[in-house]
Amino acid sequence: MCTLYSIINEDYLLRRFPIIDNPIFVHFFKKIDGRYYPTSAAFKTKRDENGLSINIKVLTLDINRFIGELTSFRVAEFLAQIPIENNYECRHDPYPAEDTQNGAHALILGDTKRIAKKLAKKSAPLDFERNAAGT
Amino acid sequence: MAYTPELLFDNTMDSKTWSTFVTGSTANNLFIQGPVPFFDISTPTVTDDRYLKLLNSINSFKDLKQNWDSYNANAISPTAIIKAIEILGIIDTHIGSTNTAHINVFPMRDGGVQFEFDDENAMAEIEIGENGQLNLIIYNNEGDITVEDKLSDPYSVLDLFVAV
Question: What's this model's pTM, rounded to 2 decimal places?
């Protein structure tokens, strides 16, 4: 049985973003005054979701595995402090049914629309080198 | 909470353009009048390269399949895409190159389309739901929602722009 990790303010949380140039243009980032920001749309839960899926960075040992073969994706990171201080529970949710290999998976519980813009403003694209599995 | 149409984004809309708006013209030199031939972008007359780029993006949303974000996002509804093109046309026609705000458009995870408007002093979004319903959200600089309201008329998006 897996021991659940307790997420604290200082933890970084990760979320994938599609960046597709060809054949379609789907960017989940916008560039304003030279800086890239993810869209808040990426941080809004759907009506049928009970939380926003994220990864706990400290438990994500291989970013390339998190990305997998999603070559048109990037990763943004933000501090857990943002949802926690806005009264959202961040819960470690390892190996969910839709991502059975992901022991670092977690959820920001509830409808995240209220903090979506805050998360977008405070998120930064994560630089990492793709290994063979991610290229 | 009723939305009072405070004007958010500065622009230098000229009197001719403003006159066209206030006299109630619905002429749309951009995209759609009547049925859309599934978002063909080859025919519209686009007056500003920025809007052409946005139009290309919106058109591309129709190709997104279920799970396009790897988190089980829905495919984007044609109704939302048509409404987004309509709103872009309204902005292009009535605001055009005088706009100084950054305008971006993104697919939404529940099958809608989202416009984002940013300038130094204001942030706003228009959410277009999968059924075409419009929702306006205005934020303060911290990203807190200060106004959220449903819009019944897509021309209400013009209230976001200041005529100076």
Answer: 0.81
pLDDT tens series, chain A, 135 aa: 578 999 999 999 999 888 766 555 667 888 777 777 889 999 999 998 999 999 999 999 888 888 766 667 888 999 999 999 999 999 999 999 988 989 999 999 999 999 999 999 999 888 766 554 443
Task: Please state the domain count of chain B.
Answer: 1
Tell if the CB–CB gap between A18 and B68 is shorter than 8 Å. yes
Print the domain residue range for A66.
12-127
Cα B71 to chain centroid, rounded: 25
Domain interval for residue B107: 46-163
Structural domain contains residue A97:
yes
User: Within a domain: residue B34?
Assistant: no
Q: Report d(CA B140, CA B118) in Å as an integer.
A: 11
Question: Complex ipTM, two decimals?
Answer: 0.88
A3 domain residue, yes or no: no
Angle (CA) A28 A40 B77, round 5°: 70
Asked if residue A1 belongs to a domain, the reply is no
Show the tokens assigned to B46: 């686009």
Indicate yes or no: CB of A26 within 8 angstroms of CB of B57. yes
Number of domains observed in the structure of chain A? 1
* Nearest chain B alpha carbon to A29: B106
- CB atoms under 10 Å from CB of B108, counted, come to 25
